[in-house]
Amino acid sequence: MKENIKEILNQVQTGMITVEEGQQWIEQLYGSNLGFARLDIQREHRKGFPEAIFCPGKTTDQILQIAKKLYERSGQNVVATRANKEIFDCVHQEIPTAEFNAISRTILIRKGEQRAVGNILVVTAGTSDLPVAEEAAVTAQAMGNRVERLYDTGVAGLHRLLAESDKLQQANVLIVVAGMDGVLPSVVGGLVSRPVIAVPTSVGYGANFGGIAPLLTMLNSCAEGIGVVNIDNGFGAGYLASLINQIAT
């Protein structure tokens, strides 16, 4: 970013472009106004990863325009969350490199090959938690992290988790996704000396209250080193895990 601004200012100083043209170029480095959306282009330089596209509430055409602009301006992978096949088909027609993960409902547009670093382990209590877990995994992978998966290891059959203790100990950070009673992050947190990101899901019967019950369980955990994100927020968990993993690597 600094190099780009310096180059623009040098062109203004030497008379290659006018002051007004220089101003326009600098403004484009920071954002792109599509009318219905003001894209934060500078977020990639400020935060280390470009703005993600949250699809619900947007039209297919709006999502396509945002995706094309981010793909054009970004130097890293572009991620869209909570997408469907119809949205993907539209994006894929314009950007053939786009990939769709039907379980996580994510679209990933790669910008070249990235070296995967570190080790993030995504753990789920049950198979019904996979959509949220996969959203976390896809997000973390898009940000250049090595991701492993350990699914369906809930407390109803705790031997399934204990049999994979080596994987638990090898991870730099763990994302633990659970609905129903939401106990699994506490169990994992009591077994490892690494940060645990707990993700409550809305999976469960009536007293689950759409994920509020596991959210409160996770917030009240007596195991140390556990942080909790919002209900069904796989993207937020994957992003946070990436920040921790990149520092630890």
Structure commentary:
With 249 residues, the chain is α/β, with parallel strands linked by helices. It folds into 3 domains: 1-30; 40-109, no CATH class; 117-248, Rossmann fold (3-Layer(aba) Sandwich). Helix content is 42%, strand content 18%. The chain is built from 11 helices and 11 strands. The protein has a 5-stranded parallel sheet with strand order 8-7-9-10-11. A 4-stranded mixed sheet has the order 3-4-6-5, sandwiched between helices. Strands 1-2 form a two-stranded antiparallel sheet. α6 links the parallel β7 (117-124) and β8. The longest helix is centred in the last third of the chain and has 15 residues, at 234-248. It is elongated. The two termini are 25 Å apart. The mean pLDDT is 88.
Structural class: alpha/beta
Low-confidence stretches: none
Chain-averaged pLDDT:
88
Oligomer: single chain
Total strands: 11
* N-C termini distance: 25 Å
Instruction: Domain count, please report it.
Output: 3
Q: Which architecture of the largest domain would the CATH scheme give at its second level?
A: 3-Layer(aba) Sandwich
Largest sheet: 5 strands, parallel
Assign the CATH topology of the largest domain. Answer: Rossmann fold
CATH class identity of the largest domain: Alpha Beta
- The radius of gyration is 21 Å
Strand order of the largest sheet: 8-7-9-10-11
Counting H and I runs of at least 4 residues, what is the number of helices?
A: 11
From the spread of the alpha carbons, the general shape counts as: elongated
Helix content: 40-55%
Compressed to H and E, one letter per element, the order equals HHEEHEHEHEEEHEHHEHEHEH
Report the β-strand fraction as a percent range: 15-25%
